[in-house]
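[Meeting: bench + compute handoff]

Bench side (C.D.) handed over the final construct sequence. Compute side (W.E.) agreed to return the predicted structure before the next meeting so the bench team could plan truncations. Sequence as handed over:
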Amino acid sequence: MTVRPVLTRTDTVPDHEGDSVRYADGPQVQCDIRVEAAPARVWELVTDIELPARLSPELQHVEWIGNAAGAAVGSMFVGYNHNRLLGAWQTVSHIVEFQEERVFGWVVVSPDGRFGDPEPDPEKPLATWRFELEPDEAGATLLRHSVVIGPARSGLSLAIDSMPEREEEVVAFRMDVLRANMDATLEGIKQLAEEPAPEPR
């Protein structure tokens, strides 16, 4: 019997009236899932930069750039993205956190100034992404995936520019899309991590 995982989420997009989140507030989404696998196996998957392209509807392809031979602080990779609203675009990611079997984090910049920032600046990224792993006493792993948007301009900024009076709605819609994509990524990682090892021949 397959037991569906329980997903818990927290985010800064309010689900009640009276509050609002604007781009300048740094909207964020966080999703968690329990994976019935040791942290070493989960870590192997989350640090495989090509894996999200297999699981996300937006990210199409990823490759290392510069002298990077694998995940480490300072390594960079380029991502090729596509959705129906923005079309195709590229990003460059800089790994800024790398704690073995605990934390994997990277910041994203736009290499071509498409969204209005003329020079990419890792100190002011268009998004900051993070995986956190927490082992439990039963040998499983709590996997947390999070993103913070801004402060640099992004594709979301272009949508806000076109209808500034609806900024809160535009931000909330984008956060919902990101949440769905992140859930899909976590589900995919869980499935792969929990697959039984192939029997030796």
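W.E. noted at the follow-up: The helical segments are 39-46, 51-55, 155-162, 167-194. C.D. will use this when planning the next construct.
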